[in-house]
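W.,

You were right to be curious about this one. When I first looked at the sequence I had no strong expectations either way, so I just let the prediction run and decided to look at it fresh. Below is the sequence, 75 residues in total, followed by the output.
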Amino acid sequence: MTEISDLKDKGENFLENGQYDDALRCFEQAIVMNANDPDLWNFKAVVLRSMGRHEEAIECFNKSLKIDPRDKNAS
């Protein structure tokens, strides 16, 4: 689980610094390890939205909502 946390932390740092390609890579790697974490899908969606890839972002937000319909971050 620590590896996923490390990837999430790195991804968040890259996102905050505008390094979207690196952030996306981190979140995608983490999702491969745990595709049932709605937070990872939300972070991926935020990165994609920041990159102007809105349709893909919506798909990720929807995946997050499928996992946790009460997830206020995905709505």
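Here's what jumped out at me. The chain has a mean pLDDT of 93. And, maybe more interesting for your project: Residues 42 and 61 are 6 Å apart (CA to CA).

Coffee later to discuss?

I.
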